[in-house]
Amino acid sequence: MIPLLTMVMLMTTSVAVASTHSLPPCPEKPNCVSSQATDSHRIEPFTVTGNALSAFEKLRNLLGQRSDTTVISSDEATIRVEFRTMLGFVDDGLFVLDTPDGLIHIRSAARSGYWDLGKNRSRMEEIRHAFEKARE
């Protein structure tokens, strides 16, 4: 009985770990970007150099300093944020650490509306630039 329980726990754990690297797909609307998309929503993930956990902590600190960003939840592999635009719209951001591949997968999507005028893409590129500069 114990070996069976152990095996079930290991299988459940490995599935959970594998799924942590998956971002929700973008909707059909042009108001979302994702590093795991294969269409026009595609944006490059952030590249990690050096210690992955340390780099992820730098990103968490950087996000916490942005006036347009509220960190909603955070753990060792995931950061969920809300971005607020000057017009009051709220966008959802997600950063997922992929240590084996040396990447941080990213997703940002508008909660409402159809088109975001490229705001989610430009914001993520702005964050990428600040993240790369912080690593120097």
Structure description:
Strands 1, 2, 3, 4, 5 and 6 form a six-stranded antiparallel sheet that branches. The chain starts with a helix and ends with a helix. It has one domain: Kinase associated domain 1, KA1 (TATA-Binding Protein), CATH 3.30.310. It has helices at 2-19, 52-65, 119-135; strands at residues 32-34, 46-47, 69-74, 78-84, 90-98, 103-110. The longest helix has 18 residues, at 2-19. It is of the alpha+beta class and 136 residues long. α2 (52-65) packs across α3 (119-135).
Secondary-structure topology with pairs:
Elements (H helix, E strand, L loop, with lengths): L1 H18 L12 E3 L11 E2 L4 H14 L3 E6 L3 E7 L5 E9 L4 E8 L8 H17 L1
Antiparallel strand pairs: 1-6, 2-6, 3-4, 4-5, 5-6
List keywords for this structure.
6-stranded antiparallel sheet, 6 strands, 136 residues, single chain, alpha+beta
- The helicity comes to 25-40%
User: Pairing-aware structural class of the strands and helices?
Assistant: alpha+beta
Low-confidence regions? 1-19
> How far from one another are the termini?
53 Å
Number of domains: 1
What's the CATH architecture name? 2-Layer Sandwich
What letter string, H or E per element, gives the SSE order? HEEHEEEEH
Look up the CATH topology. Answer: TATA-Binding Protein
Average pLDDT, rounded to a whole number, is: 87
Q: DSSP helix count?
A: 3
Number of β-strand runs? 6
**At the first level of CATH, what is the class?**
Alpha Beta
State the major sheet. Answer: 6 strands, antiparallel
Estimate the strand proportion. Answer: 25-35%
Envelope shape: globular
CATH fourth-tier homologous superfamily:
Kinase associated domain 1, KA1
